[in-house]
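hey
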């Protein structure tokens, strides 16, 4: 848990992170990074890896699909991503669906590498770990079913 200026502990997912200024450099202000920013960076980096079909567990994917069909419902950028952020470090937990036929080990290795690189490069936080749960495998036959189903709403 991170601490605020008053010394009380708060939920780390809601607490902004204060980026450290390298020793010897004068402080000319303060930078805060919200945990939701780290969450979005991790989600976008994960989606860039070939072989990742979707993110989130079955229930969150179902709600996401429903939300996409409702006009103005939008999409959730961070479905399937949880982060824990401290003042200098972060930990990331991901839920993903992998394309059938690909090496799950290779896909998760690529995800882990991409997320660590993106979060550390963009925030300056040290990523301690990226835990990945592969919740499902996307079968080629499933694509045919979802593409042929007509939309019930306009």
């Amino acid at each position: 848990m991170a601490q605020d200026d008053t010394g009380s502990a708060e939920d780390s997912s809601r607490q902004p992170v204060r980026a450290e200024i390298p020793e010897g450099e004068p402080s000319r202000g303060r930078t805060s990074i919200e945990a939701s920013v780290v969450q979005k960076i991790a989600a976008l980096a994960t989606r860039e890896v070939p072989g990742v079909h979707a993110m989130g567990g079955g229930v969150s994917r179902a709600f996401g699909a429903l939300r996409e069909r409702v006009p103005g419902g939008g999409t959730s950028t961070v479905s399937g991503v949880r982060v824990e952020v401290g003042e200098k470090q972060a930990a990331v937990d991901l839920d993903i669906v992998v394309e059938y036929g690909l090496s799950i080990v290779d896909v998760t290795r690529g995800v882990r590498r991409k997320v660590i690189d993106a979060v550390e490069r963009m925030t300056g936080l040290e990523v301690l770990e990226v835990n990945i749960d592969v919740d499902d495998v996307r079968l080629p036959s499933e694509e045919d079913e979802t593409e042929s189903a007509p939309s019930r709403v306009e």
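The beta strands are 2-3, 9-10, 17-18, 32-33, 52-55, 81-85, 89-99, 126-138. Residues 32-142 form a domain with the Alpha-Beta Plaits fold (CATH 3.30.70.1350).
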